[in-house]
Structure formats: C-alpha cells, structure tokens
Design goal:
alpha+beta; SH3 type barrels; Fumarylacetoacetate hydrolase, domain 2; 2 domains; eight-stranded mixed β-sheet; 10 helices; globular; Fumarylacetoacetase; fumarylacetoacetase activity
Length: 434
C-alpha cells in the first residue's frame, strides 16, 4: 500500500509517521500536569486538550471514555481493549490524512492546532504506564548461547529447559524509568578473585556496568487469578511495545545469582522509550521467530508462523569526550519466543496480570560482535576491549557514558514506524561511609 499522506508537515524519515501514531504521557511548560498524547512527526498531539475541544466529535465510540486522556498514565486507556485502541488510532490517522473527511476538527481549526499541538523538543515525556509488575525474559537465543559459552562452554551453553519454555525472572517495577532519566552506578558485593580458594566479597561500586538491548511489551487486559491466558488469546492482551535497556551490574550478578538468579544486579534501573507503539501499528512488520528445533508443549504453540517483529535496532554510545560510536546494529527478529508465548507461559499457573504490567524480551543479539546487544558479549566478559571512535575503548560502561538505543520498522521514509530513542547516562556511584 502507498504511504498515507498528511496535510500536516511530517518530516521525511520521522519515526512517527502517519503509519505509526504511538501513545505516551506528556507535560508542557504551560501545563505541568501529565496527560495522554500521541506523537505525529516532530510534534505531540495533546489528547486531553483535543478531547476537550470536540476533537473526537466524529468518533462516538470513545466519547463515553474521554476522561482516560486526562490521566497521568495509559493504564485506563489500555484497559479499554484492543478494539478501542484501533478505532482511536485510525480516527487520529483520518484527522491528519491529506484528504481528511473531518477538516473542521483540526486542519482548518487554527485555534485548536495552537492549543493541542506541541513540538516534541518543548514537551516533557513521562513514564507511559503505572507499572504494577515487571517480568524480564531471556528470549534472545543468540545472547543466551553466547553468554552460556562464556560461562559454561559450548556443549552446555543453553540449559536443557531453554527451548521448552520462555525463561524469565521477576524484575523490579519501581525502578523502571522513562528515557532520559540518569542511571546511578550501583554499589554492591563483588568477588574480586573468583579463583581464590576462600570466597570473600568486597563492597564496591559496580565495575562491570552493562547494557541490555531489549524490547518491552505492555499488558492491557487482566485475567482473574487462577485463570491462564490461552495462547490464542494472548495477543489481544498486549497493548504495544517500547525499547528497553535493562541495565546490568555483571560483577554483582556473578556473586549473587546462585541459586536464585539476578537480584541487586538488575533492580537499580531499567530504561524504556517514552512512546508506546501499538501492536496494530507493528502488525505489518511481523516475521518468523528464530527456529526452535524442539517441539514445544501445546499451550505454547502459536497458529501464526509470524509472531515477532522486524525492527531494526541500534545502540550508540557517547563518552564524556562527546565522541559517539555505534556499538550494535541488530534486529528484533533474533528472538526464539514471542510476547504472546511469554504471556501464555507467565499465566499458565493462573498468575493474574493487570493493565500496565511490563514484559521484557531479554537481550537481543545477532551472531557477530557488531550485532551483540551487551558489552558482556562484545568484550567477552572484559577479556577484550571494544574499540570506539576517537581511539577510546570500553570493556564495560564508565561514568558519564550515555547509551542511546533506537529502533525502527520499514524502509519507506514516508511511512516509518519507529520508537524514537531510549537514552540513559551513567552517573557515579554514591560514596557510602560504612
């Protein structure tokens, strides 16, 4: 299909084309109260103001629910369900399309344009959801294999359960932050000499601070406790997708993770992008997941072959010198489990989910060094240095480093479906007097 053309100026190459319409939470200099908006080109459309000025006059479906656009999170809008998300998105597209059937709503309404449209550079974005629970999975098989080789060798790189279920752990929802929020280097227990006969840790700032290139998916539908979400219905329970950086303290993790897994090494910060791309906008970019040569149990079997997304992902690192280097270019199709499978597995016990719950994909990596989504992989756990522009090197992140993740679907510069960026800068650890 040819790209949708708009009467509104959407810059060529924008992640937020008319084919996208992602949702987020904004505030502005004139109104500090967070509320719902959509991104369109290099602007945000304030849906609270839009609704208050009869913007939804031609969409009777949403009129009884317009209060959701005045909320400080997307939870209430998400809870309305996928059919409502779809009609709202399509209606907003129809408002901006070149031959809009409703020109009086916005195209010829200069007063409302002035009130409701804000340049992205002038707004503040906020965490899009009130996140009750956060679960991080391990669905990037290349990452799982490479890390397994580093720590266990190639013959036992993947654990026996890996291809039979989406491995995951319960993360810390309270430390999920929106893009642009600084990340403080954590302190913790570190085993400086793993080969020593007597294993005694020291207390120290993390020395192996790392990134994890991930996607996150938000839940929009609750299930009663004791009632699993069937795999055939799981997709309808998912609102949309964000970029994610699940920052990791590798040395703290190495000491603490046996026998119960990550704890303090993962609970200090997880960054997500500000704009949530609806599942419907991503539908044209569905593709096959990585091949799984095991027969999965029936509750995880999907009818559709295409269950993950063809999203081009990139990680850039800017150091204190101001020099920027591209660290990673990979693709989100490097997942062996889909978000519907993660949700079906998560709830098979009857675990209740709520709108706003967040599912992380796990680190997404390709097979070559330039496709790997963590420094742990690229530096082989600190054995080699990663070359940066300007002659700098990294094994792990240093204070002042800024990590910038971007992701985009498609190649038509007039119809990209992108996520913008997920950015975080490392601040020094607290100096604790113990």
């Amino acid at each position: 299909m040819p790209p949708l053309r708009s009467w509104f100026n959407i810059p060529r190459g924008s992640h937020f084309s008319l084919a996208n319409i992602p949702f987020g939470i904004i505030s502005t200099p004139s109104s500090k109260t967070p509320r719902v908006a959509v991104a369109i080109g290099d602007h945000a459309l304030d849906l609270e103001v839009f609704a208050a000025n009869n913007g939804f006059s031609a969409l009777s479906t949403i009129q009884p629910h317009q209060a959701v656009f005045s909320q400080a999170s997307l939870n209430d809008f998400a809870a309305l369900g996928r059919p409502i998300h779809s009609v709202v998105r399509k209606y907003i597209q129809s408002i901006f399309v070149q031959d809009t059937p409703y020109p009086e709503v916005l195209q010829t309404n200069a007063a409302l344009q002035k009130q409701a449209l804000f340049p992205l550079k002038e707004i503040k974005t906020h965490l899009p959801f009130r996140i009750g629970d956060y679960t991080d999975f391990f669905a990037g098989m290349n990452h799982a294999y490479t890390c397994g080789v580093l720590f266990r060798g190639p013959t036992t790189a993947l654990q026996p359960n890996y291809k039979h279920l989406p491995v995951g752990y319960h993360g810390r929802a309270s430390s999920v932050v929106v893009s642009g929020t600084p990340i403080r280097r954590p302190n913790g227990q570190i085993l400086q000499n793993p080969s020593a006969e007597r294993k005694v840790p020291v207390f120290s700032p993390c020395k192996k601070l790392d990134i994890e290139l991930e996607l996150g998916a938000f839940v929009c539908k609750s299930n009663p406790q004791g009632e699993p979400v069937p795999i055939g219905e799981a997709e309808e329970s998912l609102f949309g997708v964000v970029l994610m950086n699940d920052w990791s303290a590798r040395d703290i993790q190495a000491w603490e993770y046996v026998p119960l897994g990550p704890f303090n090494a993962k609970n200090f910060g997880t960054s997500i992008s500000a704009w949530v791309v609806l599942a419907e906008a991503l539908e044209p970019f569905k593709t096959k997941a990585m091949e799984n040569d095991e027969q999965v149990l029936p509750y995880l079997q999907e009818k559709e072959e295409k269950s993950v997304y063809d999203i081009k992902l990139q990680v850039d690192l800017k150091t204190r010198s101001g020099a920027s280097s591209t660290m990673t270019k990979t693709n989100a199709k490097n997942l062996v489990w889909s978000f519907p499978q993660m949700l079906a597995h998560h709830t098979i016990t009857g675990c209740p989910m709520q709108p706003g719950d967040l599912l992380g994909s796990g680190t997404i990596s390709g097979t070559t060094s330039s496709e790997m989504g963590s420094l742990l992989e690229q530096s082989e756990n600190g054995k080699i240095s990663v070359k940066l522009s300007g002659g700098e090197e990294r094994k792990f992140l240093e204070d002042g480093d800024e990590v910038r993740i971007s992701g985009v679907c498609g190649s038509d510069e007039e119809a990209l479906v992108g996520f913008g960026e997920c950015v975080g800068r490392i601040e020094p650890a607290h100096e604790l007097k113990l």
